[in-house]
Amino acid sequence: MTKYTYEKRAVEKGYANRTLYINLDEMRIEERPVSQEMKEKFIGGRGFCLYLMWHALPKEKKVKWDDNENCLCISSGPLGGTTIYPGSGKSIATTISPLTDTVIDSNVGGYFGPYLKFAGFDALCLQGKAKKECVVFINGDEGYVEIVDAEGLPKDTHLLAELLTEKYGGNNRKSVSVVSSGSAAEHILFGCLNFSWYDTVLNMVRVKQAGRGGTGTVLRNKKVLALVVKYSALSVQSNNPADMKALQEAAKYHSSEIIELDPRQNQMREVGTTHLVSIMNDFDLLPVHNFQYGSHPDAKNLYASEFRKYFGKNRNNDSCWVGCALSCSHHVNNFVPKTGPYAGKPVLVDGPEYETIAGIGSNCGVFDIEAVIEGNFYCDTYGIDTISFGTSLAFAMECYERGLINKDITQGLELKFGNKDAMLEILHQMARGEGFGIILGMGVRKMKDYFARHGADRTLMNDIGMEVKGLEYSEYVTKESLAQQGGYALALKGPQHDEAWLIFLDMVKKLMPTFEQKAEALYWFPMWRTWFSLNGLCKLPWNDVVPEDNAQTKEPAKVMKHVESYAKYFSAVTGRKVSADELIKMSEVVYNFQRIFNLRMGFGTREHDMPPYRSVGPVTVEEYESRKERYDAQLKELGYAIEKMSTAEKVKALRKHRMEQYEKLCDAVYARRGWDKNGVPTLKKIRELGIDYPDVVELIKKQKKRSK
């Protein structure tokens, strides 16, 4: 369809120093320079994606997700692609989300982002819509980009990625990475992107997901079936670091620590994130029946001990990027689905990860391990975000059980908690573009509107519909952690735990008793976690395996030895000498810029930071009674004479107190972040950060006028 040839150049100190722009309306391919300002202020990864989108979207309109002007951007970062430091293979995808109508970011493993950089480009910006289905191929070996016809290619990822890897990889399939979605992403709003790598032990293609916010839906809307990159010369020198010796020293320290300590800590190399299921269940934090409860006796069926029986034998070499000592990306091979178009055919299943197990498992009352594995497979190959799917299905199940919807709405499905057959059938409906699957595929926010039009109680649904900003909650119960309630509802893109995971610090270890301490945590942790998304890094090596003396340090939750190691890592690759504190400042620039981006899209203010009450406290009498002793004690401490109160009165009294606490938390967090009472960054803050660009200043001034 079209082809563009470019000059091959070596990466310098972690940067390719140019980006790739593709306009599908015009079939135009361009390379664009990366400025020094981009590197200094926006760093890479999510920062580059936001910068490119800010300048690519027209200023005169609020672009919708399915407008031609919407962009899909992918970038790794200056540290991405390092083959000796654990967790250095991440990419970030950004776009205007079909669920939230504002910018979404989603991080993912696999090889695409690093290979894209080594092929010559720090980031890819895809804009417009093709007239017919196509594949974009970036050949880093020969220095060309082409857009080719996709006619006749399968849509589901496990078939498509294998086919394209074979086609473009030839005898070196390890040199190819594919980004694709799946057949369901054409029909739902939370389609995901699958990023591939070739597993040389299994001799099969595997995938990781950029799951959140509908990135896959946007790709399919643009009529792109797949993005493919080829790069054959991967080595420890591919990033051309400024100081190889310093990089090797930092990498050796962190990798050696993981190999030595992981067997005694979380056993990530053995069971990955499945180890979290038992911990969450023990601490009453595992979502059950649409986040009503935090534990269940049948949860043991989904513990890591059970998944060990299914995971592949090469567990200690199970990494989604070269050289990652954590190797936590596990799989189930030769799994035979019982339903759908691939029933009876052995398939490879990547995962399941904790979020999937909790989402389509316990949250929906499904404690059948093989149903969860099968659901995981179909979500991946169909291009469905397991978090949004699980939380949306759990909401619909509760609505059905409470009589808010009936079989007329579910189109005959008996949508009760624990109905694994209904769960799998809905996945297949999404892929076919029919039935209740299309309704569920709208997500929680739009389902509330749809159910309300058919007579459902809107007030109750607002309380139990687990979404903020239109994004479904990831899978942790937050009722007893005020800090985590803020960590979810105040998150820029919506309730995803990658900004702040503070439940244990707040609820279990009691390290943040005051509002000021909670506000400080909701400043530092989101900024620090943002830093990983700027650099192409996975967060798990930071705090899932920690130094032996970490508990004795001043701030154990921050794992400061690792933070200092990352500062050395960044300096070694880029040549930019930084301290641990300066890493936080890097993130603060991008974090505030994204908040301002939300403002530009019509969001980004206090009203959009309000949680559904279920994430704050018990909505129903049944929920209260399930933790009666705990809640009664809390009301007594507040001075209530509970002996004279009905349970309904107790629910109301507790709600009043907890929402007052949440509002106070917002005040404290906004003040710590340098935002006004409405959650808008102040002019003083953006000047301090050096992002006081004319259009940014104008935007903030307009918002202040509206607020008066």
Search tags:
seven-stranded mixed β-sheet; Aldehyde Ferredoxin Oxidoreductase Protein, subunit A, domain 2; alpha+beta; Aldehyde Ferredoxin Oxidoreductase,  A, domain 1; single chain
Structure description:
The chain is an alpha+beta fold and 708 residues long. Among the domains are: 2-230, Aldehyde Ferredoxin Oxidoreductase,  A, domain 1 (4-Layer Sandwich), CATH 3.60.9; 265-477, Orthogonal Bundle (Aldehyde Ferredoxin Oxidoreductase Protein, subunit A, domain 2), CATH 1.10.569.10. The chain is built from 28 helices and 17 strands. The chain has a 7-stranded mixed beta sheet with strand order 1-9-8-13-10-11-12. A 6-stranded mixed beta sheet has the order 3-2-7-4-5-6, sandwiched between helices. Helix 18 (482-489) packs across helix 26 (647-673) and helix 20 (515-535) packs across helix 26 (647-673). The mean pLDDT is 95.
Outline of this structure?
The chain is α+β, with helices and mostly antiparallel strands and 708 residues long. Strands 1-9-8-13-10-11-12 form a seven-stranded mixed beta sheet. The radius of gyration is 24 Å and the shape is globular.
Please identify the oligomeric state.
Answer: single chain
Number of strands: 17
Largest sheet: 7 strands, mixed
**Text of the CATH class of the domain at 2-230:** Alpha Beta
CATH topology of the domain at 2-230: Aldehyde Ferredoxin Oxidoreductase,  A, domain 1
| Low-pLDDT segments | none
Chain-averaged pLDDT: 95
Total of helices: 28
Structural class: alpha+beta
Helix coverage percent of residues?
Answer: 40-55%
Which CATH architecture of the domain at 2-230 is right?
A: 4-Layer Sandwich
CATH homologous superfamily heading of the domain at 2-230 = Aldehyde ferredoxin oxidoreductase, N-terminal domain
Tell me the overall shape: globular
Gap between N and C termini: 53 Å
What spatial order of strands do you see in the largest sheet? 1-9-8-13-10-11-12
Radius of gyration, rounded?
A: 24 Å
- Strand % is 5-15%
